[in-house]
Amino acid sequence: MTSSLWWQYAVIAVLVSVSLVYMFRKLAPQLATRLQAAASASLVQPRRMSALQALGRWLRPRQATGNCGDGCGTCGSCGTSKAAAARADVQPLEFRPRP
């Protein structure tokens, strides 16, 4: 196998992996967050190397940090988010039968 062919396969593998992770996070966000939190918790163990612990802290989802100041708005306990406030002026549709 030539060197350029190996690089092509490596780039394609990275692109497919990134697109699969993006798709998984869009289609199953709660499951993805739970899996990310589980992976983070297993890496932050005291018996792990400091580099793995740093990776685990970096992987920790924002919802798992318990920081209500980040404005994620996923749990609903932070009050109204900017998106909900922007939707307050939207009028509902009214369907009327034709005369």
TrEMBL record:
Pfam families (alphabetical): DUF6587
Keyword line: Membrane, Transmembrane, Transmembrane helix
Transmembrane regions: 6-24
Keyword match Transmembrane helix: yes
Protein name: Uncharacterized protein
